[in-house]
Amino acid sequence: MVSSGDLDLLAIVGQTASGKSALAMKVARATGGEIVAADSKTVYKGLDIGTAKPTPADRQAVRHHLLDVVDPDQPFSVARFQQLALAAIGQIRGRKRLPILVGGSGLYADSIMLDYDFSGQGGARPELRRQLESLSLEELRSEIKRRQLPMPQNRANRRYLIRSLERGSTPVGAREPVWRPGVAAVGLKRNRAVLKARIEARLREMLAAGLLEEARLVVSECPPGSEAAKSNIYAALRPYFEGGISLERALEDFVRRDLALAKKQLTWFKRHQQISWFESPGDAWRHIASELGLVGS
Prior knowledge:
The structure is a single chain. By secondary structure, the protein is α/β, with parallel strands linked by helices. It has 2 domains: 4-116 and 177-292, P-loop containing nucleotide triphosphate hydrolases (Rossmann fold), CATH 3.40.50; 126-168. It has helices spanning 20-31, 56-61, 78-94, 106-113, 126-133, 137-146, 158-168, 192-208, 211-221, 232-241, 247-269, 281-292, and strands at 9-14, 34-37, 64-65, 99-103, 183-188, 275-278. The protein has a 6-stranded parallel β-sheet with strand order 3-2-4-1-5-6, sandwiched between helices. Strand 2 (34-37), helix 2 and strand 3 form a beta-alpha-beta unit. The protein is globular and about 55 Å long. It starts with 8 loop residues before the first strand and ends in a 5-residue tail after the last helix.
């Protein structure tokens, strides 16, 4: 881990429902730091319960950034996230506080931990798309393995393979992004049984907090293909609201989706040797406290 004197940013990444947010809150309270959310869904206004967005109490106790940035029907890109997040981090450091990046959206987090350059890309990259479309299925799969990117579940679908490479690739001929100096990262992971129990417990809390009402509104206002509606819980509940399946089945589907997401997140972040991994948030906290020289940790 980067020494405290050289630390520009602490990142807490890993699987969904692994305890990242609680750990980030503990570090922020102990250091006077501020949290920058690296989440592709919590940037949307109104998606509060279903995205496990920090509570009003947490946001009052610790300053958070990159939450509620755009309306659900507005486009939002990782390039825009990077621009806003780097600006927020600069402002936090200007206040002599520790920026704490926390989240499980792989490319969002990577765009800050690594020096990705999105300038001039303007969204889709036609030249890269043409190059990828010229490759065979086996060549696409080999390139995904070479770049250590998550392999789509449907390995025979060219569109999925190309999309995976577009999300995690740099244009051919461009330099590969490297880890930014001054960035330290901690990763949280759980075994499947513990993770399943935590996902189910969080789901019960969401339901008690009014999840169904929020999800019904999101599903009614956002088309299935919109980025905001792709969040696991809203996508799982859509067939229920449309009368196709029971609520019980929809909730079971959500748990399966979140477990699959957790597996993909671990695969994504495990590519980075700079991340120190822990199964216990308590162990992660002790590691961070020791590295930062926090008294009474």
